[in-house]
Amino acid sequence: MPVPGFTGKTGIVNAISDAVTQMLDATARAARAAAVQLARAGRPTKDRALIAAAAALRARQEAILAANAADLADAPGLTAAFRDRLTLTPARIEAMAEGLEQVAALPDPVGHVLAEWTRPNGLQIRRVAQPLGVIGMIFESRPNVTADAAALCLKAGSAVILRGGSESARSAAAIRGCVAQGLREAGLPEEAVQMAPTQDRAFVGAMLRAAGLIDLIIPRGGKGLVTRVMEEARVPVLAHAEGLNHTYIHAAADPAMARAVLANAKMRRTGVCGATETLLIDSAVAPSLLPALVADLRALGCDFRADDRARAILPELPAGTEADFTTEWLDAVLNIAVVDGVQQALAHIRRFGSEHTDAIVTADEAAAAQFLNGIDSAVGLWNASTQFCDGGEFGFGAEIGIATGRLHARGPVGLEQLCTYRYQVHGTGQVRP
Amino acid sequence: MPVPGFTGKTGIVNAISDAVTQMLDATARAARAAAVQLARAGRPTKDRALIAAAAALRARQEAILAANAADLADAPGLTAAFRDRLTLTPARIEAMAEGLEQVAALPDPVGHVLAEWTRPNGLQIRRVAQPLGVIGMIFESRPNVTADAAALCLKAGSAVILRGGSESARSAAAIRGCVAQGLREAGLPEEAVQMAPTQDRAFVGAMLRAAGLIDLIIPRGGKGLVTRVMEEARVPVLAHAEGLNHTYIHAAADPAMARAVLANAKMRRTGVCGATETLLIDSAVAPSLLPALVADLRALGCDFRADDRARAILPELPAGTEADFTTEWLDAVLNIAVVDGVQQALAHIRRFGSEHTDAIVTADEAAAAQFLNGIDSAVGLWNASTQFCDGGEFGFGAEIGIATGRLHARGPVGLEQLCTYRYQVHGTGQVRP
């Protein structure tokens, strides 16, 4: 992802990049102006835009499918999985429309009073949720992200610049057209939701360096994309990095609960960031419980990478390396390590984990507290599946991703996390001594 | 602030930088290990460290003054203001010690339950405040920042790497020695509060690029320092940039309140970031009120830069340029512009302001609401001085700075804002459908 505008040495490269930089500048300035209007729009106006956008998606179904067919026709060499993510169907368009309506039904986060207190001198201080401003969303070729991200940013009162993968460019433009229609019908500026005006990769670089024009970058995609964004960005990033998650079966775990929770945590969906990648099991119960856990998962099609202590119990398990224990499989593969109690489990997680989501299964409340206070993960669970790390499951209604950094927001990012705050102070003429 | 380790081309520069990078690596890894212990330390342990550090400051007063004298002797060419900031006295050391004790008296932010709810499936979700991890503090030659920053980070459960200006290196090391003594007496690792092991500027560059080792950089100093940090950092930054603040005297302002608030907002202390730099006054009251406002301030030693409409009322006022209206004077100079109502005031602030702190003086509640909802500033005040933008005045007990970005925290940054959060989820064996 070179950024010729900032690093190029030839006149030609600089000329291209100047044009791209000017495009970014024009796009972002239009977004900022729209954001000022959107920030002051009330809930009814924003909801009207979302509902009208949903109607437009349904009304323009044929045109969207045609744009999608053109995208697919232009990309013959894709893998089956990539084609599947890229492909739209009437059912998927209906799901997008329903998604927009669901966001309309959520409460407005803007203006929510987060805290309120009065000082001894009579000053009344309120901390109030406020839109972030302009959000840059960089994602891969999933057309539905266009509708999801537009809806969440719009409801949170922020303008958004969407830069999706080039393979889905026509589909995304058709979907964005429906959102623009919704904005117009509500009397809001359609520049509040914009597509990148070029697929030139230099535009991504320009977005990442647009401090002062773009307030936040959200990357959504594979590790390569997220890593590049984090390395290049001059704008704050809400990154969604890897989920190397552990489920720890404590000595005092209920065996049936342990089996049900682990099978769900690993195999419900293996490709989501909340999936468990490593099983830690206490040595006191491993001999009796591990065979059943492994049999359950094997029946579901799971493969294994086991440490020596696990292989002493089940010698047929393939041997796991250090590299395996740091691998986010996102697949039907489970690392297994046997540990001696909570402290060893915590040490393993601190060494190999990614501070995303980790769970303990135990009937011992003290052990659970020790575990939950001992991990640094964004989400810690006691007696529940790691796959609950999800904005919908948290009750946020919708999410734009899972944040894995430590600043601003951690875990599922919904409307509340897409806002910032400000203070409103009411006085009666107070001056400071 | 060149970073030879990353940009240098000669072998010698790379060798120096490798050594500096290794120093950073060792410092930051020791800080991370200490942070794990500090994060789990209870309030009594942390408070014991703070109180013991205060005692050490008092006990070692002579040694600290000697170190400070050596710093001053080595820096003969400094301005009087710089020497004053650098100079320690018994009273200033006592103030630092009391500051540590005040932080000890504040509630522990760590573990505070920020939100709590139960899902329909019975999952109990809690959002709990948690330490950030390792904080890098980059500041200029104010020795007291060493004690202030160490105390706040320690109480917030985070380790800190302090990199102060080279002119105050001996003073800062002596103060840090007292904090280390406090940590030891409380049984905490002294690596929780470290000084940069070198004054090589490459170390600052290494700190700024230490993503994964340092969780947050806080720069505290002039515009040049903050701008450099924001441009170079790969680690999230909580920046304290400029405060180009406005006090807007609305047509319905009480004249006596307007005079008292403006005089305080501009002249209480002119060098603080909450000081007012520009007066906006409604055209309806400018002819009657502006002469008194100007006379008040002139009597306090203030100079002026006025627009044409203000000079039509008071022709002796010096003419202000566009550049003046974008200048954060931090001095006894006030820009003056006459406006026609709230909308024009908002347009002026949007064009020239820095989204830091802005105030309206009015008896008209609707006008106040329009103003407070119309600005994007971190702090908006109604009928109060802009100089109230301060952690102590907000009731935070102490502050590490004023954040001017939009992510994570805005306005005064106290203990609460120095924390992040995580989720703790209690289940009874739930699996995700």
Automatic annotation (TrEMBL), chains A, B:
Q: Which SUPFAM superfamilies match?
A: ALDH-like
Which Pfam families did the record assign? Aldedh
The pathway entry for this protein reads as:
Amino-acid biosynthesis; L-proline biosynthesis; L-glutamate 5-semialdehyde from L-glutamate: step 2/2
Could you say which EC number(s) this protein's record lists? 1.2.1.41
The Aldehyde dehydrogenase domain, residue ranges: 15-300
Q: Which family does it belong to?
A: Belongs to the gamma-glutamyl phosphate reductase family.
- Sum up the protein's function in the record's words: Catalyzes the NADPH-dependent reduction of L-glutamate 5-phosphate into L-glutamate 5-semialdehyde and phosphate. The product spontaneously undergoes cyclization to form 1-pyrroline-5-carboxylate.
Write the protein's name: Gamma-glutamyl phosphate reductase
Q: Which organism is it from?
A: Teichococcus globiformis
